[in-house]
Write a structure and sequence with these properties.
alpha+beta, 60s Ribosomal Protein L30, Chain: A, Phosphoribosyl-aminoimidazole Synthetase, Chain A, domain 2, four-stranded mixed beta sheet, 10 helices, 13 strands, disordered C terminus
């Protein structure tokens, strides 16, 4: 069924405003919002077919993930989301696909009281979804990357490696455990966890490109404020794994599991630092959310040549993954190194 651009937008995305802070939403040249008090947090990310999701992925899953990966950025700041903008590129006016995308996108938006307030549609060789999210965080309570200090623990929420293993199995044509598929296609942004860590975590980042790459960014950002280069020593035996990961990866060597967990990317968990004496408090705050917290290692002051993330195997020996993590132009880290993300 052929439809115009305006008809596609009207049928799939126009809704009456759900939030009182939206004066004007989808349908005009720009949205009108009432920002309110505190700091305005903004983040933007894009998904491209064949790079960030394989062709044939259910459109509902693509819509969900397009918003989820952006909400994960707000979670890492301790922010509460409010509004979203969507720029959607399509090979043609694909009404059925766009309706499915909209269902996934808007269902997640409703669950976090996020209002889609505008955006654009355009012709594109492949399907793309570029999303901007905006939210609020109280002044003085924002979580940032530059707050790690020597002696801090490095902690993560949830489990690592599920999405990376799911992508590997998809490439091999292996049936996926439902948990692994959900972790790849429908990640859950840790928004409530980020808010719970306000005033407690020293530094925080969401794990989109993998633990090694993202924790490395925290150490680099924190070095100036700490007044010294920083290193983190991470014990691989502590990397948290789901039961589905353990079952599906049972045939893999330990080092291949470590590569998926430490550098595979697409986890969308929170990695944060805090003084050792506050670990119990962090666990207490996140327990009502059903979210486990795992301490992986410590932050240390070091020399410039030793700065960065150091992984230690169960015998205490240094270990390096084949690739440090996902890169926008070379693809994900994996057992054989970077390759194009997708099928």
């Amino acid at each position: 069924m052929a439809v115009s651009e305006l008809e596609l937008i009207r049928r799939c995305f126009e809704r009456r405003p759900l939030r009182p802070d939206v004066a004007l939403g989808v349908g005009d040249d720009a949205a009108l919002l009432r920002p309110g008090e505190g700091l305005l947090a903004a983040a933007a990310d894009a998904l491209t077919e064949g790079v960030h999701f394989p062709p044939g992925t259910a459109p509902e899953a693509v819509g969900h993930k397009a918003l989820a990966v952006n909400l994960s950025d707000l979670a890492a700041m301790g922010a509460e989301p409010a509004w979203a903008l969507l720029a959607l590129g399509l090979p043609g006016p694909e009404l059925a696909w766009t309706e499915g995308f909209a269902r996934g996108f808007l269902a997640l938006a409703r669950s976090w009281s996020v209002e889609l307030v505008g955006g654009d549609t355009t012709r594109s060789p492949v399907r793309t979804a570029a999303v901007t999210v905006l939210g609020r965080v109280p002044d003085g309570q924002v979580l940032r990357r530059d707050g790690a200090r020597p002696g801090d623990l490095v902690c993560v929420t949830g489990t690592l490696g599920d999405a990376a293993l799911a992508l590997r199995l998809l490439r091999e044509g292996t049936a996926l455990h439902p948990w692994l598929r959900a972790r790849l296609e429908r990640p859950v942004p840790r928004l409530a966890e980020g808010r719970a860590l306000r005033g407690l975590a020293g530094a925080c980042i969401d794990l989109s490109d993998g633990l090694v790459a993202d924790l490395g960014r925290v150490l680099e950002a924190s070095a100036g404020a700490a007044g010294t280069p920083l290193a983190a020593r991470i014990e691989l035996r502590r990397l948290p794994a789901s039961s589905a990961f353990r079952e599906a990866a049972a045939a893999l060597e330990g080092s291949r599991c470590w590569a998926l967990q430490a550098a595979g990317g697409d986890d969308y968990e929170l990695c944060f630092t805090l003084p050792a004496g506050r670990l119990t408090e962090a666990r207490r705050r996140l327990e009502p959310l059903g979210t486990p917290v795992t301490a992986l290692g410590t932050v240390e002051a070091t020399q410039a040549e030793e700065a960065g993330v150091h992984l230690l195997d169960p015998e205490g020996h240094p270990w390096r993954p084949p690739a440090p993590g996902y890169d926008a132009f070379s693809g994900p880290g994996g057992e054989e190194g970077p390759e194009p993300k997708g099928p």
